Amino acid sequence: MPRRQSPKALGMFRSDGAKLVPLDVRPVERETVLQGWAELAPTIVGEPLLIIGAKVKSPLAGEPDLLAMDPRGILHVIELKRGPRTFDVVAQIVRYEAWVSRLSRKKVRDLFARYRPGVSLETAFRDAFGRPLPDGAGTKRVLTIVAEQLDGPTEDQISAMRNRGHQIGFVQFTRYVDAESEYVVFTRRVEHALDSDKRLKTMQKRADRRLGLKLTEFRSLLSELREAIQMLRRGTALATEPSASLVDGVDSDIAHFWLEHRWRWQWEFLPFSFLKQLYAHWSRREAAKGHRVAKHDDVTRFGKKLREVVEAYGGWEYRQRCPRTSLSDSEPLTELIPAWIEPAPDAVTIGYTRAGTTW
Description:
The chain is α+β, with helices and mostly antiparallel strands. The protein is built from ten helices and twelve strands. Strands 3, 4, 5, 6, 7, 8 and 9 form a seven-stranded mixed beta sheet that branches. A three-stranded antiparallel beta sheet has the order 10-12-11. The chain is globular.
């Protein structure tokens, strides 16, 4: 199934009486500028927050950009990204979550004391939200990525991590400028499941009152509906989601290549030689964009890593077959590699067969 298309902004304008003046979109030049915005107005992530740490030192590689707490006492790990290259951000923020999950309440207090010396966490919490710090503060965590945009593979990673129980949200920002001022628009594109569950419970109560259904029956029906929607969205042949290491390692380019093309195949059988030449074309295209992409000239290593990726995402099976008529349909992607030679119909060929295909 093709990925659902996100709404596309048509532009922003400043009204000068009867005249509309278009605003130019400009990237944020430094990540520290974005961090400053978030510290001054933490509500940009979609809810009131108390910042308790910035560029927090951790035993992991890298530093969480911001650590915050909401009125419920839930810890928020916020990662800020500028520019279009975001494919590593999901694995990065999930690693930070693993570290934050081990923080004791005393450690959280110590982090806040370093961020705001002379003010206790309890006092700052009461001043910010008008209520005492909850007893269970810090036991739950949510993750928020704030970025200008996300590429397709990153959206797939977010979906995979959410399916595994991680509370990941995405806030998109766009910076507009004109001759006089600059403006920044923040839009919550993917909300945390905790927020969705809160609204879901409200809907359940209303439905229970209006329809007279028992709450347990409604939950059962809703669970079945969720499963049906997931099957429609992801395809019944899609198996388990991959681990984050596939898209966050030295061979991550192969995973990104597969993620970009896995919904586009027209053939029911993909010869390995076709995939290898298509990857070479894709890597040259990515390099031309300024991205660092491995060439993978070692055919054996490429084949091994490609097989790991394909098996992880499911939907295709590694096979040795005679193509016969499986390549007779049009495959538009072959136009990108005109030098590729199609195998003979009766030649034994290694490749990948779409799951459920009968020969």
